[in-house]
Amino acid sequence: MTSASIGIHADRPANLDLVRRLKDPALLLLPALAFLSFIYVLPLIDLIRISVSGPSWSSYFERVFAIPLYWDSLVRTMQISVTVAGLCLLFGYPTALLIHRSRGMAQVLIATAIVLPYFIAILIRTYAWMVLLGRNGPVNKLLVSLGILSEPVQLLFNRGTVLLGMTAVLLPLMVLTIYSSVARLDQSLPRAALASGAGPIAAFWRVSFPLTLPGMGAGFLLVFVAAIGFFITPTLLGGPGDQMFAMHITQQADSVTSEGFLQALGVVLLTITLAVVAVAGRFLGFEFIWGGRKLTENAPIPTDRYAKARHHGLGASAADLIGWPILRLFGRLPASCGTWSVRVMGGIVIAILILPIIVVMIISFSNASYLTFPPPGFSLRWYEQFFSDSNWMRAFWTSLIVAAMSAGIAIMLGASAALGIVRSSIRGKSAIMLFLVSPIIVPPVVLGLSLYSLFLRFDLVGSVFGLAAAHAIGGLPIVVVILSASLQGVDARLEQAASVHGASALTVFRLVTMPAIMPGLAAATFFAFLHSFDELVLTLFLSSVQLKTLPLMLWGDINYRLNPVLAVVSTLEVLLVIAGLVLVRPVLATSRKAA
Amino acid sequence: MGEPAALRAMRSGDANVRTSRTGRLREGDAIGSSIAVREAVKRYGSFHAVDRISIDIEPGEFITLLGPSGSGKTTLLNLVAGFQSLDSGEILVDGKPVHNVPTHKRGFGMVFQSYALFPNMTVSQNVAFPLRMAGVDRATTERRVAETLEIMRLTEHATKSPSQMSGGQQQRVAIARAIVKRPKVVLMDEPLSALDRRLRESIQIEIRDLHQTIGSTILFVTHDQGEALTMSDRIAVLNAGRIVQIGRPLDIYRHPTDRFVASFVGESNLIEADILQKRGSTLTMKNRAGYVFCAESRDTIDVGRATVLVRPERIAVSNEPTANSVPVSVTSAIFLGEILRIEARMESGEPLLIRCTDMANRPQPAVGDRLHVSWDAADCWVLA
């Protein structure tokens, strides 16, 4: 009797438990995790497996490091990446300050000048630099007309153009990362420094600057990591002496003989990237990758390192002798010194980001049969040619379809995952978030290489769905980041209020949650679409002769002939991005405020 | 209310002695500056945040800018600090215009609402910052910082980072940083509003004592009338970008110039009444309920309608009718501890707020009870 009643009582909680478990929002994470496991983790594991499948596990790696070509290229890649990250930091910081300090319309314009290029395909922005610096380009024309050059010279295909192009391409990433940390700074701090007798520039160096160091670190590392895996820009702008590591992988990809060795190259690149990210994450917290704050409310990190007595001995006398006097000297400089250096540096950055785009847009209306600036006259002939060329149009439609499918996959998986991560009380949220976002970090070349074997095995090469799914690997993190931010912005008390007053879980979602995240959803859809629409590197590995996307056509044409049709495509892309940005502007504005 | 007059007199005498001394900031002779604001105007678009404000602040005075949010008090403080520039008018410190002097050269100390402690520096580095920027050498800096931390009872926290401290401690660090240079002027922008009530009261007293020790001119901004009454030598009440009234706390409380001040500072009953007769400074008045009473007033009041301020604690309550009392019915009675707060209604329908001290023989009235209230002529104040 007693045992039976115990049995019944024990039964009920178990049933309830099951129901509760099935309702656990953490389950919403499963689709995205399954998707990534199959199409992202599995291929990477396979990549590593092949790389160690030689006679001995290290034989392919020994070859990589034994051949001077690859070793030199690795060193060169590091040099270029550090230089680019340094340049971005040097110019990006003043630009972030410029955005922060300007007001009203000026701020909107400057921010747009930074954000717009950020969303335009790297391929197109690189192409714009080729146009700008080409033999008949505006820079050569200007130098000749000023009498500095007697005839146009080859400005392209050297280390300088690689650095310039990569810096220009990566600057928006740096500016936006630093801006979010500058904007987070409590504005009464610089005021307190002023009120304490520090001049504006001294206040900046002693207070604002040190407090934005984490933002600078995050920006530097993000740019550095992106630069290591760079492939498009150095290929198009560099000369034979500027080969970067990622370029070897694409060049070798066609030859079957290099299997194993090729994967070893990929693993080396991946390892370096992950090592840099791991070290960075150790100091900055891995949130730096997606520019967010911790998902769980943690206590502020105690800043013990400041507490350590450091005002005795050599350091102290150095500070007395040099540090403070210099700071006081800085303090004497009028505020206008700082203001003007910020304006000049920011102005240079805006020019570097916007001028190439404007030049390309103007050239698209040229009536000349070759690339020249300024155009001898204006016509729509290149637009006509673009829209009447069946190859271009087919590629255009393919891109649209792939991008739409990819955005659909990314949104469905990403929205569900975002709900799961924000609403569940699952442990290890940070680790899961890191995993969901990690595809951003993996060099696209490595991802493409690893996917290639998977696609071969499942006969997906050249399939629209396969390509869309591959693009969704990169689209998913974008969706997760945007949507989890907007979900966190939804006041949980509003949802509680709705359910207290009798709304069912589904009604709460429909009436409270959905409207609140709608703008975020729109933005996420757009960016996931754009990500796929612009994607080139994965496509290079996974497409076939029948399946050509717009970026792939562009890539082929840029390598063969530089004609104004490319400028037409670029102009259309710029218009697409502008339209999209106008659409999602409210979201950007609010997320910037939140940041 | 306020501090003893003797103490005040002593201190102002003291200040006079110190004014006659010369020399720059040496220890011990920190004295306040006079601040004069003349016809100051600050606009944001068509909105006048500060609308032709003039105010003269004596050296060493503790003056509070009191007003609701949006009244322009913080803007005025920012103008004095130099964070914003005047659209017209001028600000003089010790008789010299400061509009061309940037903030960091004005030599003021300032305490912020959000504390604004530099998170990248320890407590002692925060406090040392103004001295180092002024070029004071390390030995002197360390001594002055140690002294100041001791005054603020922070000595054992010297090597902590601000984020490791409680709100009250952080605010004391912020005050230490503001006074370490012994500035002639200390600006305080709602420094206590982020603290809980008990902490607020203890720091109020600390700031007032500090003011008496260092003798700086303190310009204090708050929206809390209690804070203003406890701490200030004088209060300037602001509304909609203008100074409505300026005076000693007692004057502001007892003799407000208009309805805004009367209702913003302290609790008040504003009773509409007709002036029946005027004899010298004594008016005979009758309110809508027919209650005839006398009120003291200034000479300027003419016969006609007027608004009379009767503070809730000045109203005498009894259960039986007395000579010249008016009946009211209780609408709510709340026991607050030492005080019984009664809301009642006169027969005319006008509400009346009463505060009486708790006494053993006074039962708590119930809703609907009839009480008889009265007040003396001296307890009324006729508003212009």
Descriptive report:
- The complex is a heterodimer of chains A (595) and B (384).
- With 595 residues, chain A is mostly helical.
- Helices cover 76% and strands 0% of the residues of chain A.
- Chain A has helices spanning 2-23, 30-51, 59-66, 68-101, 104-118, 122-133, 138-145, 159-184, 188-195, 200-211, 213-228, 232-237, 245-252, 261-284, 304-307, 314-332, 335-363, 381-388, 390-423, 429-437, 444-457, 464-489, 492-500, 505-534, 537-542, 550-560, 564-594.
- The longest helix of chain A is centred in the N-terminal third of the chain and has 34 residues, at 68-101.
- The radius of gyration of chain A is 27 Å and the shape is globular.
- The relative contact order of chain A is 0.12.
- The model of chain A is unreliable at 1-10 and 294-311 (pLDDT under 50).
- With 384 residues, chain B is an alpha+beta fold.
- Helix content of chain B is 27%, strand content 33%.
- Chain B contains 10 helices and 20 strands.
- Chain B has helices at 5-20, 73-81, 103-106, 123-133, 138-151, 167-179, 197-214, 225-231, 249-254, 259-264, and strands at 35-44, 47-57, 62-66, 88-93, 96-97, 109-111, 185-189, 217-222, 234-239, 242-247, 269-279, 282-287, 292-296, 305-310, 316-318, 326-335, 339-346, 351-357, 370-374, 380-383.
- In chain B, the strands form 4 sheets. Chain B has a 6-stranded mixed sheet, sandwiched between helices. In chain B, strands 13-12-11-14-20 form a 5-stranded antiparallel sheet.
- In chain B, helix 7 (197-214) links the parallel strand 7 (185-189) and strand 8.
- Chain B is elongated.
- The two termini of chain B are 25 Å apart.
- Chains A and B meet through helix 9, helix 10, helix 15 and helix 16 of A and helix 3, helix 4 and helix 6 of B.
